[in-house]
Design brief:
Elements (H helix, E strand, L loop, with lengths): L1 H25 L17 H7 L2 H34 L5 H9 L6 H15 L5 H23 L2 H12 L4 H12 L1 H17 L2 H6 L6 H10 L4 H30 L1
Helix pairs in contact: 1-12, 2-12, 3-6, 3-9, 3-11, 5-6, 6-9, 7-8, 9-12
Keywords: Cell membrane, Membrane, Transmembrane, Transmembrane helix, Transport
Pfam families: BPD_transp_1
Family: Belongs to the binding-protein-dependent transport system permease family. CysTW subfamily.
Amino acid sequence: MKYLSLAYLVALFGFILLPVVTLVIFSFQDGRLPVPPFKGVTFEWYAKILTDRAMMEALGNSLIVALLSSLVALTLGFLAASGLARVVLPGSVLMRGLLIAPMTVSYLIIALGLLQMFNKIGIRPSLLATGIGHVVINLPLCFAILYAAIGEHQKSALKAARDLGAREWQVLWFVAAPMLTPALAAAFFLAFTFSWDEFIIAFLLTRFDVTLPVEIWSMLRSGLSPATNAVGSLVFLVSVIVVVTLELTLFRKGSK
């Protein structure tokens, strides 16, 4: 049974990680196509993308949009979760449903709706429009994570702080936020990751200043290249560094 479980874990991780391993290996391909056979190791493609001005601008745009939209979504989700957890209103169930509803809607439908709305009110396709779109899709995620993390213990602590005379912003900043730090971090980094990788909304709501996924799509239109593998490998490396850092610092500290 022990060896069967081990074999199952190996097969599971192999199934999950094989595409990523293949992507990384062929990012070093000493040839023009990232396909077998592997012809040798070269860092040419990494040097090419790191010196590509359009790629670096798209990378900066993605970082800005992901960071700001995730912070806005986290703040709004935190406030909504704290408010709905504090009091039970006649329409609380409906409010929670409406807040979570965008998670069940296709990104394409959301993007088309936002595009039409922005055209009506005069907002042109831009990084701002993309950031608003990412707030729309990440706010339900942040709300769901934070609302689920607020248990009876947290509610009792918040109530005690209010009974002792703390103002609402003090309760949220000095009591609620520290208790929900792991959940806040999880919500933020999930929102950041979804915004970082999101393509459809960014494609429809940007024009000249594009994000990294849109720039990668532009590269793919000209055909397969190890350069696209190199971009994907760097993005994956950043994600791994973030996850490992969180595990070694925040989450491990929270479990203790």
